[in-house]
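User: Could you walk me through two proteins back to back? I'd like the raw sequence and the structure tokens for each, with a short line separating them so I can tell where one ends and the next begins.

Assistant: Of course. Protein one, sequence then structure:
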Amino acid sequence: MSEAKAISVFIIARDEADRIGHAIDSVKSFADEIIVVDSGSQDGTRDVAARHGARVIENPWSGYGPQKRFAEDQCRNDWLFNLDADEAATPALALEIEALARSGALVSSPFWQVSILDVFAHEDGPAPWAYGYVQIRLYDRRVGRFSDSTVHDTVRPPEGARLARLKQAMEHRSIRSVAFHVEKMNRYSTMQALDMAKRGRKVARWRLLAEFPLAFLKAYVLRRYMLYGWWGIVISVNFAYTRFLRIAKTYEGELAARHAAGPPPRV
């Protein structure tokens, strides 16, 4: 039988006092340690995290990828589990990870993917049709780590690395309210636009017309938000508007850069 493996859990947070306690409690059964990296919370997040048993470290915000890489460096174990403050491991997932760590079966793959399912504020858990996406969240940092992208915080496995899939899922409570969602999508779309400009990506003008309706259909139909009834209309419109804002802000940046450069020289 393989040796049991200790797992460090890390969470990056800012102003998450209402949610971080639940996130921490959801992973206690398999965590050897829980690290919370806070970036200037003003709502008591650090105190809540400490009361729930986490080791709290302060670090100025540097973007999603860099902040998670900083958190990785604070962990004492090589096996890491990343959790966002608006997420929680289900009891079934916690049991699955605990069993993998105890049996040593964890090392059969250096990267474990997990399904992350939407849970809205009026729900106790994910609906049977809940939209979810798959990410690597349990991994051996000696083989691969989070990227240093300020926007795209994903673990980057080396080419040809073996990926395994956890059977159970995580819950994702990303939307506290419509008002919160509006603030979040405005802030995040700005980061996306800046990232696109940094990488030299241009916007096709037709997307200013097509982005909203196409994104609405993607959310309403492909993500199955239509099954939520009227609430599905709300979240589909908000998703589409976020996508439109990203394009609009990128185009705005192009116009500003063109204006700053001045008129082309006369020949």
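----
Protein two, same layout:
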Amino acid sequence: MSQTALATRYSPSVGSFAAMLLLALMWGVSIPITKLGLLTLPPLTLTALRFGIALPLMFLLVIGKQRLPRRALPRVAALGVLGIGIGQVAQTFGVVGTSASVATIISATIPIFVVVFAAARLRQPVSGLQALGLLAAFAGIALVASGRGDAAVATSQTTLAGAALVLLSALTIAFYYVWSVELTEQYGTATVAAWSTVFGFLALLPWAAWEMWHVPFQVTTTGLATAVYLGLVVTVAGLFLWLHLLRTVPARIAAGIQYLQPVVGVAAAAVMFGDELGLFFVLGVLLVLGGLALTVTERRKVAA
């Protein structure tokens, strides 16, 4: 039986759920932490610094692992350009042109797209009840976001181009995750993650160089600490953990748990920036948790 088939039938262990919750925490707090970094560093400069810090550690992890054959280079290069050169750049510019609440809602579509792409490419089935759970979790994220700030202010801070770029980012990042699973099954997680990051970083570098030449900025301790966290925790540890989870548990479960990311981000922002959390936040969290409960349910078959 192939690894994809095993992943489809695999029932997640307590350790797998713990890993998924840890990942939601790691990636969730990255949003307010990024906001701190952007106070002193331009968006593309911060992103380039993030991946520049991540690359050396990634290649340390590749030592002694499976080598990447030449015939795989075009696909791995395309993967990196898609995920970083397009996905991360689109996200960076999209967040600039949208309010925090609108960007949160659009970005929360990533788990849905992951499930759709996994069903199409990895042949991982999703029941009607599980699909309902994903939609309920998404509705919870919408409640969480709508409960923060004035809707008129959010609308005034959002442009159509900004929203379109965040949506483009969500689509490309979701496909990047699923395509990564296919390639890591053939060439190994560490090898694919390292080389795809190289090609993505090279695609990002000209944009970042242009920005650094034209936009004045100041390198501060906060900016460097942000880049280190994003590079080592979010990019290296987070990406390796996420790709491992996608190979060992059904995509609908791994993606569903990640709906907790915006909840973690909103809560962290409340602590760091003094944002108020109201009734909508509580109701949204309950809806997310209820949706996740439906997402992880398994239909048990009666033995003949």
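The CA atoms of residues 198 and 278 lie 43 Å apart.

Let me know if you want the two compared in more detail.
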